[in-house]
Every structure is written in structure tokens, then in C-alpha cells.
UniProtKB/TrEMBL annotation:
This is Glycosyl transferase family 2. It holds the Pfam family Glycos_transf_2. InterPro entries: Glyco_trans_2-like, Nucleotide-diphossugar_trans. Residues 5-157 form the Glycosyltransferase 2-like domain. GO terms for molecular function: transferase activity. Gene3D superfamilies: Spore Coat Polysaccharide Biosynthesis Protein SpsA, Chain A. It comes from Succinivibrio dextrinosolvens. GO terms for biological process: protein N-linked glycosylation. It comes from the Bacteria.
Amino acid sequence: MPKICIVIPCYKHTDKIEGVISRLLPFGFPLIVVDDGNSKEEALELYKICENLRDVFLLHHDCNKGKGASVLTGLLFAKENRFTHAIQIDADGQHNIEDINKIVELINEAPEAVISGCPLYDDNAPKSRVIGRKITNFFVKLETLSDDIVDAMIGFRAYPVEKTCLCAKSCNLKFGMTFDIEILVRLKWAGTPFKFFETKVAYPKDGHSNFRLSDQFKISYIHTVLCTLMILRLPITIIKKLFTSHD
Ligand SMILES: Nc1nc2c(ncn2[C@@H]2O[C@H](COP(=O)(O)OP(=O)(O)O)[C@@H](O)[C@H]2O)c(=O)[nH]1
Ligand SMILES: [Mg+2]
């Protein structure tokens, strides 16, 4: 029986997270909120939001470590507390919270799989992000030599906790915005199955994104690394394919 929790990385989204938390609580899963080195004021605000809520755990980074580091802090806490699955969701309310039901259904159907959203954007989505995502998804197909990962950037997904922590530990991942992409490629290389569901992603006019041009460069760098590793792994991939086609 899966034991599910929800991980919310939070940086400069204290104004939005209260609404997200209050919409998540009725689902009845414990929430792990990670304060990623927010300012003193924002950290205090977060503390006030979480302090009287049952089953809401607030974890704290002393300085800003990045989205990936926040997710990993949440996942390690989930592992320590024997959760089998962690649903990751953004703090800024961009994700369609009702789709948690779809995720839970898919976790029960395929507990060994990564469950991930496949984004349906509203009209406000910046063109540069939409195009950047298409390029990333193209490279991910190349890096995994498969069509299994439909989208590698959305932060609305569920991880099998044990396997993901092990994978993150063994490959020395980068901890910024590239984490979402790299962990999926590495999990695929480790033989993890994937399931995707369509989900609306909103870009409200008053929304604030921490995504910077430098993140785009870091993403290009990570694709260079992953493409190189894919080439180095080719002999293993070919042998694996030969063996599985004989089954
Ligand atoms: N970009 C960024 N997001 C962080 C960081 N730490 C935690 N987060 C959280 O990661 C999620 C995604 O960040 P966001 O800025 O909305 O990126 P975007 O949705 O891709 O534009 C949000 O829940 C943030 O609060 C960080 O250092 N940088
Ligand atoms: Mg966002």
C-alpha cells in the first residue's frame, strides 16, 4: 500500500503558497514544505502559515540552494519518514491541484513508476518557455533513446521515494532548475517506468517566476553532459536492447 506525501519547494512564493496549502490539505496527505533560504520576513511568514497545521512539516535551508536541492531535501525527509511516494508540486499555484487524484490513481496502478504531468498551457505562457521546453523534450528523447519521457520539465510529478533518492545520490546531480530534467533521464537509465497524464498549467498575470536566462544556459550544459553520457552508454544500451528483444 503506497504511503504518499506531498513536497512543495518554496522560494519567493510565500504570497501564493498559503492558497496552495489550503487546497492541498483536503486530500489528506502530509505536506513537506521546503523553505529554500527565503528572506527573514518570508521565512517568518511561511512559519506562521505552517505552524498550526497538522501534518505540515516545514524544512529550512539556511541559504538559497536551488529548486532541485529543495526537492531533494523533501525527498530525503520523506524517505526518513518511510513514505513510499512523494508528489512534487510548485508553491506558486501554477499547477492544477485537482489532478492529485489522477496522480494517486496512477501511483496505485504502477507503484514502481515515475508519474508526471504533461502540461497543457494557458494563453499567457511565455513563448520562450514553451519553445525551450520543446527543445528540452527533444534532447531528452535523444538522451534516453526512447519516447517514454513525454515532458521533462514540469514540476508536478510523483517519485518513488527510495529509488529516486538512491539515483540522486549515486549520480551527483546538479541542484538548480536542471534537476527536474536530469533526474528523469537518470531514472530512465536506471530502468524506471514512466506514466504521464495531461494537466493544465496556468501562467497568471501577477505570477512571479525565478527562472533566469542563466538557467537556460545551465539546461544547455546539462544536455551536453547527458548527450555525452548517452554516447558512452551506447554499448550497454545495445546489449540491454538485444537481451530484452530475446525475451
Ligand atoms: N527557480 C527557483 N525555484 C525555486 C528555488 N527554490 C525553490 N523553488 C521553487 O520551485 C518551484 C518552481 O519555481 P518557479 O520560479 O515558479 O519556476 P517556473 O515555474 O519554472 O517559472 C516553485 O515552487 C519555487 O518556489 C530556487 O532557488 N529557484
Ligand atoms: Mg512557477
